[in-house]
Specification:
The chain is of the alpha/beta class. It folds into 2 domains: about 150 residues, D-Maltodextrin-Binding Protein, domain 2, CATH 3.40.190; about 100 residues, Periplasmic binding protein-like II (D-Maltodextrin-Binding Protein, domain 2). It is about 40% helix and about 20% strand. The protein is built from 13 helices and 15 strands. The longest helix has 21 residues.
């Protein structure tokens, strides 16, 4: 390459780098959100965690209801609710399509490496959705590791994948679906022997069809000697610590009230779920 050619390439590279820098996205700051009076909050249409009611069009769930209180306390009068697939929640934050996620997304180290979390809002255990009558006699995630002929459905981006892998379930036993809406048909038609989800999700889905049921006698998986339980929190893009900290301050106060307890319990969270939501900090969960 000639000296002139090298110079031209260097110039073009500099222009390209400048263009990329100018188009880089960054989340709206707390000050910008408070000044505009509006915040964009995403949910994944998961009952009872965060969803849009199909009749009223209102955002509902343990995440949205608590987020509404937090927004009000921060002086934010308008919430733009955005629905997306669960697997698109983190990419959406990174691309600045929304400012905050209120889907009670489980706080786990792999996610902590790419986004930042509030302190836990809720805690919840695991469950299995099975065909009516539970013909395979399933009672836990370990059943799939013990019988390679069984298949299990998981939602794309959900942490049940990590649990299955840790238990030794092989990749060819896993059936990935895009959302909970596909779970009933996947299980009832035999595409998978069960759907692995949180206990609350499994119960909600079972209530929608006589063709499926919650696996009775289910026991939460034990991995490395630890019973698996999830803690869900609000999620933000990296670099938006100021907004996260403001949310944490309001959340900490709100969780001391009967109103918070009634709100979360109203969506099926048990006494154990609500009391254990205080057991772990985000720092501890991200470090596990």
């Amino acid at each position: 390459m000639t000296k002139l050619g090298k110079t031209a390439v260097m110039a073009l590279s500099a222009i390209a780098a400048s263009a990329l820098a100018s188009t880089a996205v960054s989340a709206a700051t707390l000050a910008e959100i408070q000044e505009s009076g509006s915040i964009r909050i995403a949910v994944a249409n998961e009952i009872p965690y965060g969803y849009i009611d199909p009749v009223s069009g209102e955002a509902m769930g343990a995440g949205p209801d608590v987020a509404k209180h937090i927004a009000e306390e921060l002086g934010v009068t308008n919430i733009e609710w955005i629905t997306t697939d669960f697997s698109s929640l983190i990419p959406g934050l990174q691309a600045d399509r929304f400012d905050m996620v209120a889907a009670e997304m489980a706080i786990i180290p792999t996610r902590c490496a790419t986004v930042i979390y509030s302190e836990p809002n809720t805690s919840y255990g695991e469950g299995l959705l099975v065909p009516a009558g539970n013909p395979a006699g399933l009672t836990g995630y370990a059943d799939f590791a013990e019988n390679s002929d069984l298949s299990v459905a998981i939602m794309a981006g959900a942490n049940q994948l990590d649990m299955m892998q840790a238990l030794g379930v092989s990749e060819d036993q896993l059936v990935t679906i895009s959302s909970n809406a596909d779970a009933i048909s996947t299980v009832s038609t035999g595409r998978a022997d069960a759907y692995a989800a949180t206990g609350l999700t499994a119960s909600e889905l079972a209530g929608q069809s006589d063709a499926v049921a919650v696996a009775e006698g289910f026991t939460d998986p034990v991995i490395d000697g630890t019973e698996q339980r999830s803690w869900g929190g609000f999620v933000f893009a990296q670099g938006n610590e100021e907004l996260r900290d403001a949310v944490n301050e309001v959340l900490a106060e709100y969780k001391q009230t009967d109103e918070w307890l009634e709100t979360v319990s109203g969506y099926g969270f048990t006494d154990a779920d609500t009391s254990r939501s205080f057991d772990m900090s985000t720092a501890e969960l991200c470090a596990e």
